[in-house]
Structure formats: structure tokens, C-alpha cells
Write a structure and sequence with these properties.
The structure holds two protein chains of two kinds.
Chain A (H helix, E strand, L loop, with lengths): L2 H11 L4 E4 L6 H8 L4 E4 L3 H15 L3 E5 L3 H15 L4 E7 L15 H4 L6 E4 L6 H13 L5 E7 H5 L23 H13 L3 E5 L1 H5 L3 H11 L3 E3 L14 E4 L6 H9 L2 E5 L5 H4 L11 E6 L13 E4 L2 H11 L6 H9 L14 H11 L5 E4 L3 H9 L8 E2 L10 H11 L5 E6 H6 L4 H7 L3 E7 L4 H11 L13 H7 L4 E4 L5 H10 L4 E6 L8
Chain B lengths: L1 E10 L4 H11 L3 E9 L5 E10 L1 H13 L3 E7 L4 E12 L4 H10 L3 E5 L3 E8 L1 H11 L4 E6 L3 E4 L15
Antiparallel strand pairs in B: 1-3, 1-4, 2-3, 5-7, 5-8, 5-9, 6-7
The chains are: A alpha/beta, B alpha+beta.
């Protein structure tokens, strides 16, 4: 069979049912094979959206997300989505077409060195040189993308290779001598961790996105229940423990809550779980504050341990395997006094009223109205922090955002992917007027598939977070504004998507009810004061 | 900033060198030299990388290198238990000094590999210090060109890299 057909067969072997993509000249053989296959192809309106949709799909389904683009501009458009997935450790397999093998290097039409361009933000990449290798490469790509610390893997396939005939057989197993992720924790270190926990008086868990990637929420819950240790989380760790839990203290970081950040500096033992201790989560904590703090760092990527913060007890492995081992050996820590102290601190969440819509109130109200398994996809900027701080943490993966790369325009295409992964769950895309306009074209995809996504647009005619930085650094002078925004309601109407503009808190209730009841996409445009603060 | 010599086994395929060197530039690690060639197993190449950095940098370099799928194994070579060698080709302007240059070449047990009417080309193998010493002696005569391979190294004794433990956390 043709290698392109073999490729599709491999995808089926990997249980792929949905791919996101955009065709072009040098990927046509693959599209022809795709057309004849049972795999659903979602045509996005620009390739970056394909990568973001695959990202949303991967996060919600727990599977590897797949996206496809053509050579040259198709491939370069995917780049931001690939970097975004890399920073947030999301498993993707990205397939790109390439010019004919014999033409590579001659700068022919739509040629670009995409494996070279993406080298520093793919987990691995392949430029296929022999069609016969395709089954092995696909098998390896899915394995590499989804195991260890997940991430994007790119496969670049020249068009003559797609067309070549091969004998198809799908490998049963993978053996890559240079890639053997450590899953099980080191017994000696586990013993030391258990001892350190037993000796601590003010222990604290810092949970990150790694817990969600490991699908270890219930193992974490069991660990918290048994030990009584309170928990804070990073932006990527939102949803690791339900907000309702009495050990839950909230989000840390630049835009985190005071109580959660305070807990960090008051603790005597910090247990990092699936956290890379990134600057936005950790920026404010001085080395001095950590002088007498012991640190246990659990992560599947050994390179993250000791990279941004020193640690006494490194524990390389999968949180899903390590946590139950520790839970089994550890005994309850008397944290009553510690919890009492922490409960004395408040999580300040001021809500000054402006006469327009208060975005914090809007998210809280929406959070109360949404089902327990609803998914919120936040964009980047103020809307992201309004959403992260006010959307209740629920069990299961329910909050999606671009944490590491901070990619504006992520929300809408990621919500598309989320809806395809879980058509029965409510999906809300929260955006600002800046980010919405970066992915407006995806209204086309949403209309085509009549995806029931509630779009909540906070329109403050500003890039709100940039506006805040400008006022702080340059004294209330603004380099940019978006006051010539289009009429977003009319714009959605052009795609037959209904919408309501809300300019007062009192109208929110009805608008959300209508949006959530509506069968299909719906826009709720909330008019927000340009001076509304992030915190 | 200490100097460290890493010996790295990698898959012998295109793109590997770019991945390894790209990692160094991207993360801002200092690299003194890198040499690479095929090993006893044609599917495996071995790189000798000389880096500068403190313990933190060195640990990060090892860990980040290890994350590359094509990297099979990394060991750090102890200078006291390893043979370090570099090869240099030096084209020296002879002028009227042909005899004295040849004398120095002999003392250093280097080899003259090409003779021309105005130059001599010398092949010199040794550790870095030996090559530097030779170069400083040649300088007064006038060095036309130098090319160096960068350090390549092997552990002394019966131990083989493939039987050693891969670099691991704890």
C-alpha cells in the first residue's frame, strides 16, 4: 500500500478518531488516504488553530492530539501551537507535508526546514527519508509524545515518500535505547520523603500540571486525606484538588492568592508534585525564605528537579505511581495548628464595582451555574486570571489555558478541541477582545460543526494586562488601544451565531442562562471597564 | 568555571549533531570543543564535548542532554583516569629556519606531513598543553594556518562506556 495509507492505518492503530488540520499541495496523498478512512478530519481556518485544537482535545480526552498541515507556511503556522504544547507538556503528534525528497534544500516552492525550526520546542522530530520506516516512526512518535513528560512530536513527510509503496506491518512494541522514562520512584528517596513528612510541622503540597498529566488526582486526594497536608497549586495545577476540600488554599504566583503565597513562605516542608517551579509561580519567593525549608520534589522529568529551586529529596518518577507508595507508608501529620494559622489568612479577591460588568463576579456566577464536569478554556491576559481566580476547581480536568507560553488566541481553538473530545460536557471559552480577534477565524469551524461552545468575551477595548503594565511603568500612557473594535455581536451573526451584549452585572444571570440553554454556539459579550484590574 | 569532559553516545543519524549543539546555544551553556565520530557499532556515534561550568550548569547539561531521544548515554571523564588527545595540523612559514623547526618537531615527536618551498605542515597529536606549548614555539617563525580537531578522549583501563551506568538522578 501507499505510505500515506499506511500512515492513516497507523493512526487507527493508535486509536485516533479525530484530527485537526488544513491541507495543501505537499500533504495531498495523506489527505486522500484520510478521506477514505473513518477518522474525522476537522478543517480549521488556520494551522495554528489545528495545533491548539489538538491541544484542547488532548487535555480533555487524555489521549494524544493529532494535527496535520502542509509544507512551508502550513508548517510555520503550526509553530506557535507546537511551542505552546511543549511549554505545557501536552502530548501532540504533528504531521507536516514536505517537498519531494530530491528537492529538499533547494528552496523550492513552499519548502521550509520545519524539523530545524521546531528543534528546540519539540520533544522529538522526524524527517522521514524511507517510506518503509513510517510504521515504526508513527509508533515511536505516539509513544514518545505520551510517555514520560509528555510533549509534541513532529513528523515531516516528503510528498514522494507519502506516495511510495510499502509493506505494512505495525510494530507491537517500542524500544528506543536513548529513551527510558523513569516511572517508579527510588525506594531510598521515598523512605527519606516519608521521614521528612513525619518530622514536619508545617508541610505544604505545591501541585502542578504534572498531576493532571499523570491523571493522578485521586492519588493526590488520597495522599491529602491521609496526611492532612494543605495544598496550593500553580496555574497549570488548577483542578488538582477541588476548591471545596478543606486542605485547599488556592493558586500561588504573581497572580495567585495572598493566603496561598503566604503559606509558601511559612512552611517548613514543601512537597512539589509535577511542578517545574516556573518564574510566574515562584518569582516572588526569595532563597532566604527557603533557608530552613526542606524540599521534596516529585517530577517525571529529572531535568526539572534542581533547575529552578534546590531540593533535598529528589524523587524522579510518575506521580500516579509514587504518591500511593508514599501514602501507604506515611502517617497522619498533626497539621491542626498549621491549618488554623493558614485559615487566619484571607484570600483577598477585591471586587470594586464600576457600573459595567464585573468580570470576577461574572466568572463566579458562571462557575456556580455550570455543571460539575463543565470545561472552562481561558485565553491569556486579564481574562485568564479572572477565570483562574474565580472558576471553582472541580475534580477532573476542567480548566484549560496556555500557561507556559502565554499564547493569546488559544482559547477559541482549544475550546473547539475540548468540545470534540467531550461533546456532552459544557465548554466555555473565556476571552478578551484582543485574544478573540487573534482566533476569530475559528468561528468558521464552530459554525460548520455547530459546536455548543459558550463564548464569554470580556470587552474592555484594551489589552488589559498590557494596559496595566503600561500604566505602572510609563504612568498612564497607553501605546495601544482597541477602541475601533468591530461589533462582535454582528460579527457572530454573520456566522449565524447568536449573542447578547451585557453591560451591567444585573443582566448576566439571564444572559448566561440563555447561553447555556442554547443548543449550539453562543456569544456573551461583557462590557468591562478599561481600567478594571487583574487582581 | 571548571572544565569538564563529557563522553556521549548518540544515535548515528542526521540531525543529532544539530540537536546537541542547538541545546548548548539555546540554554546558554559554554562549549569549548565538540568532536564526533562513528564507534565500533556503526549505528552509534560518540561525541567528546568539553564544557565549562559550575556544578549546577554541569548537572543541567547532563540532564538536558539526556532528555534528547537520540542521546543513549553520557559519562563524565575523570582527567586522571582518561587519555585526552587532540590533533592539530600546523602550516609554518620556514624562511631560513627550516632546520630549527624540524628540530623542534622532532623533540615534540610531531610529524612533518607536507613540505613546500616556503612552508612545512606539521601533524601534532597530544593533549591540549602539549599542543599549546608547540604552538608557542612555532609562533616566532610565523604560523600560516592552524586546524584543530578538538579534544577526543577515552577512559583508561578495562572499563567500557556501554557497561557503565547511564547518568541518573540520585
Amino acid at each position: 500500500m501507499k505510505a500515506a495509507e499506511a500512515l492513516i492505518k497507523c493512526l487507527l492503530e493508535e486509536q485516533v478518531d479525530t484530527v485537526f488540520g488544513y491541507p495543501g499541495g505537499f500533504i495531498l496523498h495523506v489527505y486522500e488516504a484520510l478521506r477514505k478512512s473513518p477518522i474525522r478530519h476537522v478543517l480549521v481556518r488556520q494551522e495554528q488553530a489545528a495545533a491548539h485544537s489538538a491541544n484542547g482535545y488532548a487535555r480533555v480526552s487524555g489521549k494524544v492530539g493529532v494535527c496535520i498541515g502542509t509544507s512551508g507556511p502550513g508548517a510555520t503556522n503550526l509553530i506557535t501551537g507546537i511551542a505552546n504544547a511543549y511549554m505545557d507538556s501536552i502530548p501532540l503528534v504533528v504531521i507536516t507535508g514536505q517537498v519531494k525528497s530530491s528537492m529538499i534544500g533547494r528552496d523550492v516552492f513552499q519548502e521550509v526546514d520545519i524539523t530545524g525550526a521546531t528543534e528546540s520546542f519539540t520533544k522529538h522530530s522526524y524527517l522521514v527519508k524511507d517510506a518503509q520506516e513510517i510504521p515504526r516512526i508513527i509508533k515511536e512518535a505516539f509513544y514518545i509524545a505520551s510517555t514520560g513528560r509528555p510533549g509534541p512530536v513532529l513528523i515531516d513527510i516528503p510528498s514522494d515518500i507519502q506516495e511510495a509503496k510499502i509493506d505494512f506491518s505495525y510494530p507491537v512494541s517500542v524500544d528506543i535505547r536513548g529513551y527510558k522514562p523513569t516511572v517508579k520512584g527510588h525506594a531510598g528517596q521515598i523512605k527519606r520523603a516519608v521521614k521528612a513528612i513525619g518530622e514536619s510541622k508545617r508541610p505544604l503540597i505545591v501541585a502542578g500540571g504534572g498531576v493532571l498529566l499523570a491523571h493522578a488526582q485521586s492519588e493526590l486526594q488520597a495522599f491529602v486525606d491521609k496526611t492532612g497536608i494543605p495544598l496550593v497549586h500553580t496555574l497549570m495545577g488548577k483542578g488538582t484538588l477541588p476548591s471545596k476540600d478543606k486542605h485547599y488554599l488556592g493558586m500561588i504566583g504573581t497572580h495567585g492568592f495572598a493566603r496561598a503565597n503566604r503559606a509558601l513562605t511559612r512552611s517548613d516542608l514543601i512537597i512539589f508534585i509535577g511542578v517545574r517551579v516556573a518564574d510566574r509561580a515562584w518569582g516572588g519567593v526569595s532563597d532566604k525564605a527557603l533557608q530552613n525549608v526542606r524540599i521534596i520534589h516529585i517530577d517525571i522529568d529529572p531535568a526539572e528537579i534542581g533547575k529552578n529551586v534546590g531540593t533535598q529529596i529528589p524523587l524522579v518518577g510518575d506521580a500516579k505511581t509514587i504518591l500511593p507508595e508514599i501514602t501507604a507508608k506515611v502517617s497522619r501529620v498533626d497539621t491542626a495548628e498549621w491549618l488554623n494559622e493558614l485559615n487566619g489568612y484571607r484570600n483577598e479577591n477585591p471586587r470594586p464595582e464600576t457600573g459595567l460588568v464585573n468580570p470576577k463576579y461574572a466568572i463566579q456566577l458562571l462557575s456556580d451555574k455550570l455543571n460539575e464536569d463543565a470545561i472552562m478554556v481561558a485565553d491569556v491576559g486579564q481574562n485568564q486570571m479572572w477565570a483562574a481566580r474565580n472558576f471553582e476547581d472541580r475534580p477532573g480536568r476542567s480548566f484549560l489555558t496556555s500557561g507556559g507560553l502565554g499564547t493569546m488566541g488559544y482559547s477559541l481553538p482549544a475550546a473547539v478541541g475540548a468540545k470534540f473530545a467531550a461533546p456532552k460536557r459544557q465548554v466555555v471559552a473565556v476571552m478578551g477582545d484582543g485574544g478573540f480577534q487573534m482566533s476569530l477565524f475559528e468561528l468558521g469551524t464552530i459554525k460548520t460543526h455547530q459546536l455548543g461552545i459558550v463564548m464569554v468575551l470580556f470587552n474592555n477595548t484594551r489589552l488589559g494586562m498590557v494596559r496595566e503594565l503600561q500604566s505602572r511603568n510609563y504612568g498612564n500612557t497607553y501605546a495601544v488601544d482597541l477602541e475601533q473594535n468591530p461589533d462582535f455581536i454582528k460579527l457572530c451573526a454573520a456566522y449565524d451565531i447568536p449573542g447578547i451584549r451585557v453591560s451591567d452585572n444585573s443582566q448576566l444571570q439571564e444572559a448566561f442562562d440563555k447561553a447555556l440553554k442554547h443548543n449550539g454556539p453562543f456569544l456573551v459579550e461583557c462590557m468591562v471597564d478599561p481600567l478594571e484590574a487583574t487582581l | 568555571m571548571n572544565r569538564h569532559v563529557l563522553s556521549v553516545l548518540v544515535e548515528n543519524q542526521s540531525g543529532v549533531l544539530s540537536r546537541v549543539s542547538g541545546l548548548f546555544s539555546r540554554r546558554g551553556y559554554n562549549i569549548d570543543s565538540l568532536s564526533v565520530g562513528e564507534t565500533e557499532d556503526p549505528k552509534v556515534s560518540r561525541m567528546t564535548i568539553v564544557v565549562r561550568g559550575d556544578d549546577y550548569i554541569l548537572e543541567q547539561i547532563k540532564k538536558q542532554l539526556n532528555k534528547l531521544i537520540d542521546v543513549i548515554k553520557i559519562i563524565e571523564l575523570d582527567p586522571r583516569q582518561s587519555v585526552f588527545r587532540e590533533l592539530a595540523l600546523i602550516k609554518v612559514k620556514t624562511g631560513d629556519n627550516r632546520a630549527s623547526i624540524i628540530e623542534i618537531v622532532d623533540i615534540f615527536r610531531a610529524k612533518i606531513v607536507d613540505v613546500a618551498n616556503e612552508t612545512l605542515t606539521v601533524e601534532m597529536t597530544g593533549d591540549e598543553a602539549k599542543i599549546e606549548a608547540f604552538l608557542s614555539l612555532m609562533e616566532p617563525y610565523g604560523i600560516a594556518e592552524i586546524v584543530r580537531t578538538g579534544l577526543t578522549a577515552l577512559e583508561r583501563g578495562n572499563r567500557e562506556i556501554k557497561n557503565q551506568r547511564k547518568y541518573e538522578e540520585d
